[in-house]
Design a protein that fits this description.
alpha/beta, Transcription Regulator spoIIAA, 2 domains, 4-stranded mixed β-sheet, 4 strands, elongated
């Protein structure tokens, strides 16, 4: 490569091999030899080029673009007809400028987003109804043919969603029970009502806190796992393969997960209640000087079996909602990792929101019937 000054401007003579193998060297030569800023007119003589491929043509095209962007002019001279098609193709595939979308007024954008969310909620409701209908159909078949229940798959999912979650659920519930007792005792002792901390902890844990916090933990743990598993299978086309060989996705993948989750959550809620009451009892003993036998006596006065059942009855319904949301979001995953992450996040958010809504509905229902 040589640069010389002429009457018509600067002359750049390129020679030799300009291919992908020499692209790194050629790029360094261009950067060190040619001053793009000072060139008003640059003539590139390509007569001595022995071999040229797309990489070499792209380097020369980029040189021309840089000089013209700086205000100069570039002329390619003595271009072999064989190489002319390369420059035309590179010019044709030059990235186009994407026009910026005009910004909409904030009120219009708000209505547009609201409409999109409404349509999305409607589609999710249709997908949930579809899964519920498929489950009802599969369960009706399973009654006549028990083998279709896939007991092994249900046992595996029960192990993952229940037995594997016991340590973290019980630890969380133990801490929550201890915090409720400590905070309740801190305020009630000012009125000489220390003993009623037992009533507060027992009723609050058994009726509301135990079930709702356990459901939130399950939504974040098992619900996200269900979405990620189904989404990964969708990305790898395993679900399409099941459809091709004539197996129902609802029967093979969704039903075992839902049944296992509906059996797991009541067990976890019961264990969470025990752990929370144990934590509350320890704090009452240490912080409020309420001995264990006094704690148990007052607890028996404050609660009964009905109090326990109010919380446990909610668990299967919350588990069904968590499982349905997780499976619907998993089936909506497309072929990218970003889509998998988005739907996993949405699965947890939607499940937690609906769990809280269902808990409120149950609270109003039990209040209306006097329970």
């Amino acid at each position: 490569m040589a640069v010389s000054e002429t009457e018509n401007g600067r002359l750049l003579t390129v020679s030799g091999v300009w291919t992908i193998l020499t692209a790194n060297t050629a790029e360094k030569l261009i950067d060190t030899t040619v001053s793009k800023d000072a060139a008003r007119r640059l003539v590139v003589d390509m007569k001595q080029i022995v071999q040229l491929d797309t990489a070499g043509a792209w380097l020369l095209h980029r040189l021309r673009a840089d000089v013209e962007f700086a205000g100069g002019f570039v002329e390619l001279k003595n271009v072999d007809p064989r190489y002319d098609v390369l420059f035309k193709e590179i010019e044709r595939h030059n990235p186009r400028v994407v026009p910026r979308k005009p910004s909409k007024p904030s009120l219009v954008a708000l209505f547009e987003r609201t409409g999109e969310l409404t349509v999305e909620i409607y589609r999710d409701a249709l997908a949930i109804c579809h899964i519920l209908g498929s489950l009802a159909l599969v369960l009706s078949w399973a009654i006549t043919s028990p083998r279709r229940m896939r007991a092994t798959s249900i046992a595996v999912q029960f192990d993952k969603s229940c037995i594997g979650a016991v340590p973290i659920v019980m630890l969380m519930s133990f801490l929550i029970g201890a915090i409720i007792a400590q905070q309740g005792g801190f305020y009630l002792r000012q009125f000489g009502a220390d003993i009623f901390v037992v009533d507060l902890a027992g009723i609050l844990v058994l009726r509301e806190i135990g079930v709702i916090l356990t459901a939130i933990m399950v939504a974040g743990r098992s619900g996200s796992a269900f979405t990620a598993e189904l989404g990964s299978m969708k990305m790898r086309e395993e679900i399409d393969a099941l459809n091709v060989i004539g197996l129902r996705v609802t029967e093979v993948l969704i039903l075992p997960r839902l049944l296992a989750l509906m059996m797991s959550l009541p067990v976890l809620v019961f264990l969470a209640n025990i752990a929370a009451l144990f934590g509350a009892g320890l704090v009452c003993w240490w912080y409020l000087a309420i001995p264990p036998h006094a704690f148990m006596t007052q607890l028996q006065i404050a609660i009964d079996v009905e109090t326990l059942l109010v919380g446990v009855v909610k668990a299967p319904f919350m588990a069904l909602i968590i499982g349905l949301i997780a499976c619907v979001e998993g089936m909506k995953v497309t072929g990218s990792a970003e889509s998998l992450g988005q739907h996993t996040t949405m699965s947890v958010v939607k499940a937690i929101f609906l769990v809280i809504v269902v808990d409120g509905v149950f609270a109003m229902f039990f209040a209306s019937i006097g329970v």
